[in-house]
Amino acid sequence: MNRFAPTLAGLALDTPVRTLALYFAVHLRTTRFTKSAAPVKSVTIDQYITHVADALVTDEHILRGTDLRSNRLTMLLEGYAREDDRGPLRLAQKIPVTYPIACTMQRWADKLHKGGQRLATRAAVAVAYGLSLRPGEYLTKPDVALSLDKQMNASDCFFVFNDDECVNVCDPHLYPEGKTPSIFLCMFRKLKHYKRSGEGGPRAVGARPASATAGFCCVLTLFEYFTKFPGKRDTLALTAHGVRGVPWADVRALCHCAAIESGLDPLRLLPHSLRVAAQAQLEMECDERRQQQGGWNSEAGMKVYARKALGHARIVAAALHDPQLCPIEQTRMLFNDHSVVPVATVADAHAR
Question: What is the dihedral of CA 38, 39, 41, 42, to 10 degrees?
């Protein structure tokens, strides 16, 4: 059924299920290849095995997903992972978009775009940084059908005023007159890292404290966009200004220009760098705060996050908007290839 090699066809019927899983991993590694003709990665094989385990548990063939895993399988996947990581380590590591870099990206959005596209691109940086989103959760992809269950649906995006008034972005006429929101909240119906469907959760970001004097505010940037372009129900939120939305290439261009201006490797500052941005920006926060920020947790942990989303957004708002927590010099020192001294300047960025 899974197109196993003929050599596996003669296995005894009582072969232990863990041994079958081990053979399955080897089969995938030797028969499945990426578009670049590279073997399927260890992490993908692990996902295959997880899906098989879920199916076997559902059909009551095994009691627990761990019944499919053995120490040998773990060692095999670790060996494949080491092979996957071969090559320059600096190219395998994405540089996190900390707050100073996000501020630079906002300035480049102003330089490269006008009108609605400028506001939308600024909003994209704000929401990706503030909510720790994956690119596919808020960006448009040409010729790819949208799956709003796992993306920012305008119907599920809200501004919170004074912590007691929640207004959908599709209803700007309900915004309290003369007030600005303190929190932006998005309810995701499903989350990619959940094994079973139907389990989503809230993601929220708080406004920059009034005491801050530099940089941009995630919440007010989004408020400016949705005030100008109200959301349309059951559409991708950042397409309110037009069907083009914010494509991946636009955010990639911002990353490239910001990297050059900041003296960083532009090959390693990518749209997905915004997904890991908060982990670096909130480095001094406790593990619970960091896990809550991006939803990196178990199901039980996510339930705690769902109850504390608004409070968490307020608590970390000051840290998220503080350019001094992760100075650009620190990022340069940690992530640059020190064998080559960067000589790129702002003038070089303009030339490109």
Answer: -150
- Bridge partners of 157, per DSSP, are 186
Q: Report yes or no: 99 and 326 within 8 Å, Cβ to Cβ.
A: yes
CATH of 99-351, one of 1.10.443, 3.40.630, 2.60.120, 2.30.30: 1.10.443
Q: Cα separation of 87 and 84, whole Å?
A: 9
Sheet holding 165-168, edge to edge: 165-168, 157-161, 183-188, 201-206
CA distance 21 to 73: 8
Phi, psi of 165 (to 5 degrees): -135, 115
Using one digit for the tens of pLDDT, what is the confidence trace for 265-309? 998 899 989 988 877 787 777 777 877 787 765 544 434 434 567
What distances in angstroms separate CA 65 from CA 4, 51, 195, 221, one per listed residue? 22, 9, 12, 44
Per 3-state DSSP, the chain is made up of helix, strand and coil in percentages (nearest 5) of: 50, 10, 40
- Find out whether 110 and 118 touch, Cβ atoms under 8 Å: yes
Quote the radius of gyration of the chain (alpha carbons, Å): 23
Tokens of 174: 């309900």
CA-to-CA distance for 219 and 223, rounded, in angstroms?
6
Q: What is the pLDDT of residue 143?
A: 67
Helix (H) / strand (E) containing 258: helix 248-262
User: Does an H or E element contain 205, and which?
Assistant: strand 201-206
Mean pLDDT of 42-53: 90
Cβ-contact 183, 310 below 8 angstroms? yes
DSSP 8-state symbol, 55: H
User: How many CB atoms are located within 10 Å of the residue 231 CB?
Assistant: 24
126: three-class secondary structure by DSSP: helix
Q: What is the pLDDT of residues 324-351, one digit of tens each?
A: 999 998 888 888 765 544 444 444 545 5
Q: What does the angle CA 108 – CA 178 – CA 311 come to, to the nearest 5 degrees?
A: 70
